């Protein structure tokens, strides 16, 4: 031990000076936790306020309205809202057209969602392939339909399907796409055309995040482009595919704009064609309390279906 070190260590209470002279930094002063909590609160408060105002409050109000019923005093008496308990939910579960519409959109999603996501995955892989030229053009071309509002897209496709208005009358006069047997799948075509580019962009963004070293290692092992896509790319972007699938499931149960527009083109699309169309029609009667009960049940069904799908995919990945 040197003389200088011994001199300072012998002096009690002067350890901070000894550490500074010995080249060892002293302990940093503790940061005040109060300032950290205030900063977190400042950043979280705007989001929390907007989330509560536009999400939690409407949900709570819908649940509140679903527990009320309309009561009249006599035949022509004034209507008042009174607490009715779960009577509106009893009517929901007894409503046959509503559950038929739920089954209709589930069949719609079972066919349309895999086709749409399969096309989105294919287009994303093509854009990510080094063999494809003009990627900027194709990326824009695939995404442009999503920029078209859903109502405008439905009107455009409605005219294309119409036997009397379509420029492809040679086809539409022989095949009635607006008939009761085909109108659901005609709507599925519109939804697929609009949302393939949106889902493709999510999957393509996940592909861009994959390190190129993995592709180089696969090529050194003799893998071609197809093998790299199947064994390297698709497993690594599976979380993005699951995300788009969950978005698609939610969107399927919320189908509204396209069927509502197609009511002007086809008598096969009724006021209870989809669950959301049933809610809209019921609220227009007006029967806001029953429409609120429909909405709550539909929201719960959407949550259960999405959560079940997410847990199923997570269990498959764990295996």
UniProtKB/TrEMBL annotation:
<keyword id="KW-0472">Membrane</keyword>
<feature type="transmembrane region" description="Helical">
    <location>
        <begin position="140"/>
        <end position="162"/>
    </location>
</feature>
<comment type="similarity">
    <text>Belongs to the binding-protein-dependent transport system permease family.</text>
</comment>
<feature type="domain" description="ABC transmembrane type-1">
    <location>
        <begin position="102"/>
        <end position="309"/>
    </location>
</feature>
<feature type="transmembrane region" description="Helical">
    <location>
        <begin position="40"/>
        <end position="64"/>
    </location>
</feature>
<dbReference type="InterPro" id="IPR035906">
    <property type="entry name" value="MetI-like_sf"/>
</dbReference>
<dbReference type="Pfam" id="PF00528">
    <property type="entry name" value="BPD_transp_1"/>
</dbReference>
<keyword id="KW-1133">Transmembrane helix</keyword>
<protein>
    <submittedName>
        <fullName>Sugar ABC transporter permease</fullName>
    </submittedName>
</protein>
<feature type="transmembrane region" description="Helical">
    <location>
        <begin position="182"/>
        <end position="210"/>
    </location>
</feature>
<feature type="transmembrane region" description="Helical">
    <location>
        <begin position="290"/>
        <end position="310"/>
    </location>
</feature>
<feature type="transmembrane region" description="Helical">
    <location>
        <begin position="236"/>
        <end position="257"/>
    </location>
</feature>
<feature type="region of interest" description="Disordered">
    <location>
        <begin position="1"/>
        <end position="32"/>
    </location>
</feature>
<keyword id="KW-0813">Transport</keyword>
<keyword id="KW-1003">Cell membrane</keyword>
<dbReference type="InterPro" id="IPR050809">
    <property type="entry name" value="UgpAE/MalFG_permease"/>
</dbReference>
<feature type="transmembrane region" description="Helical">
    <location>
        <begin position="105"/>
        <end position="128"/>
    </location>
</feature>
<keyword id="KW-0812">Transmembrane</keyword>
<dbReference type="InterPro" id="IPR000515">
    <property type="entry name" value="MetI-like"/>
</dbReference>
